[in-house]
Amino acid sequence: MALGMLVDGKWTTEWTERDRSGKFNRMPTQFRDRITADGSSEFPAVADRYHLYVSLACPWAHRTLLVRSLKGLQDAIGVSIVDPVLSEQGWFFSDAPGAIPDTVNGKHYLQEIYLQAKPDYTGRVTVPVLWDQQTQTIVNNESREIIRMFDVEFGAIAPSDLSLFPTDLQAAIDQTLDAIYMPINNGVYRAGFATSQAAYEEAVTELFLALDHWETVLGQQRYLCGDRLTAADICLFTTLLRFDAVYHGHFKCNLKRIADYPNLWNYLKHIYQYPGVQETCNLDHIKRHYYMSQTAINPNRIVPKGPVIDWVDWRTE
After folding, report:
1. Can you give the pLDDT at residue 210?
2. Which of 50, 53, 58, 114 is catalytic?
3. Is the pTM of this model over 0.90?
4. Cα dihedral: 54, 59, 64, 66 (round 10)
């Protein structure tokens, strides 16, 4: 299916995230309000008010679903899960295995949620979306900000006392999130969506230089920011999880697999087995989304059977 967007509230399959040199330039997210525990915003951190729209295939959405699970917020924040395969109208809700319909607004397409919040919206229709049932609008659709709100602002009502943004590591976490974003999290897309050889090679080179760097770091410590699991690890994990199954082949990020990096590979499998993580991971949705939705890259929509990945064979030393 062609990737699309809304322009002045109307759906179009024209896509404008590539420049003349063939580089992929991601559009910025536009809904950036904040939920606060102290009441300093119009969106208080309370249970049963907010609803999360996600795709199990999308690494950005996966971050929010993962933090919601790790914090034990499943009963406080509802969720809807789109079908893994994009339609001609973008993300849509279905009764496919693993999908959850829109029980809050009763919509069929995710674009309808965007238009309910802003009828003349222009931009990509992306997940995650954090929806406020009281004011009937989108609070935020930026994954990095949503996971911070789930961890920090919902801390008082979250059953888990796990802190993914501990105060003493705030600076290191933010620096690490910045460091991994462009070359790795967005880098796989910069490679996969490039339309020139030069743009592709630039992205792939930066991607593997960054992976080499973090392979070295993880040879010296358990997590990206030291000895504790933080939001930085969540944000790297959701990219690494998809790498060998999708990015290595589909996006041509094939200098190495993550399985070829001893430290990154064991780090990935260690986090996968962290309580609350595995149930948010769905390789079927992941593979079907990329291989069946992005027909400019895979026109025959054939989904590979592999790779066979053993997520539980890991070492602790």
Report:
1. 98
2. 58
3. yes
4. 110
Q: Which residues of 220-258 are buried (b: 16+ CB within 10 A; e: fewer)?
A: eebbbbeebbbbbbbbbbbbbbbbbbbbbbbbbbeebbb
Given a cut of 50, the residues of the chain with pLDDT beneath it are: 314-317
Q: Which residues contact 286 (CB under 8 A, 6 or more apart)?
A: 56, 57, 84, 241, 242, 245, 246
- Which two three-digit tokens encode residue 266? 């064991």
Q: Which helix (H) or strand (E) holds 139?
A: strand 137-140
Pick the catalytic residue from 181, 189, 272, 274.
Answer: 189
Structure tokens of 104? 């809050």
* Model pLDDT, residue 316: 36
Sequence-distant (6+) residues with CB within 8 A of 5 are 11, 12, 14, 15, 16, 27, 122, 123, 124, 125
281 is catalytic: no
The residues, ordered by sequence, that sit 6+ positions from 22 with a Cβ below 8 Å of its Cβ are: 194, 195, 196, 197, 198, 199, 200
Residue with tokens 């339609």: 87
Annotated catalytic residue 189: yes
The pLDDT, as a whole number, for residue 1 is 58
Query: Three-class SS of residue 267?
Result: helix
